[in-house]
Amino acid sequence: MKLRQARPEDAPDICRIVNGIIRQTLVTFTTLERSPPDVAAEIDRLGAAFQVAEREGQVIGFASFGPFRAGPGYAHTGEISIHLAPRARRQGIGRLLIRRLEEVAADKGLHVLVAGISGANPPAVAFHAAAGFVQVGRMPQVGFKRDRWLDLILMQKILPPGPDGAPDSRGRAR
């Protein structure tokens, strides 16, 4: 198994993973499946902020981060997403992917990573807590899927500064 930056040609494998999650679970609130062209465009846009785990030439998991919210005041905060194929779970692959994302985020000058997690996904809450994220909020019944109201749990991790002198908590160079 190896980790690497995602490439546009990974889009079909990524779609198989995420679309299965969309169809079969309450892990994500969306009901709209992803298309390979849309995922390929996202990979191009995010660059190093989109990582995959690959085994025997096939993507078995992915993790990415993008802006948390629009506007310059949020420039040092990113929101992560991480998903694994069922056969790749509980093998430490998610832990490796999240560590890689943290490294890339720190290198890009991010100070905080945020995860928005479905209240119907306690294993993801435990996973993020084990990775050093702390719960900072719970928004009751903001999601709706499969005739069910779902809570959104917000977790965050404050990152150590990157090697290039990432800004301090006030956005100033160190």
From TrEMBL:
Sorted UniProt keywords: Acyltransferase, Transferase
N-acetyltransferase domain span: 1-160
A Pfam family hit: Acetyltransf_1
Domain of life per record: Bacteria
Database matches in InterPro entries: Acyl_CoA_acyltransferase, GNAT_dom
PANTHER family: N-ACETYLTRANSFERASE (PTHR43072), UPF0039 PROTEIN C11D3.02C (PTHR43072:SF23)
Protein name: N-acetyltransferase family protein
